[in-house]
Structure prediction request, 188 residues.
Amino acid sequence: MSANTVEINRTRFRFDDNEAVWLFGYGSLIFKADFPFVQRRSARITGWSRRFWQGSHDHRGTPEAPGRVVTLIETPGEPCSGVAYLIAPEVFEQLDFREKNGYLRFSTEMTFDDGSLVQGLVYIATPENSAFLGPASESDIARHIAAAAGPSGPNADYLLHLAESLRGLGEHDAHVFEIEQHLRLVLK
Ligand code: BEZ
Prediction:
């Protein structure tokens, strides 16, 4: 699959008849909400793990030297914490463009802290997209991130913002926090 997903996403999981749609964010959407929203709530989805396995050609790296950003990997039973935004359907056009480097819209159930459930959307970069990098050790990922930068800034800032935001939400993510530890040593 081509890394540019804008056209594909236009035809996926459209909610044009809804006044507003819940979007689950687990990466940069947690710390960078540069779009209008009606509500923001902490939430989780189940059956997915957050992993720095997606290449970034357009935000935290370049086509020649991609950075590493998060995607979700199917992991039965595993909870992934993040933030849910209630947004107007037309905002998805802006988000499809921002997340065009391999991310497709998927329908998902999400759970709020009070236990209530809603259906909504999540962007996932699956292994079939051409920017997918796949697994590596946390220390190798940290070294990769330390060396990468793109139009949105250093790849290291992305990881450090994400780790700090997860701590702010009271969440623990072993993968993210282990990369953070290695990265802080590499950056010293
Ligand atoms: C997210 O935070 O959910 C997200 C980040 C980058 C691309 C797609 C989704």
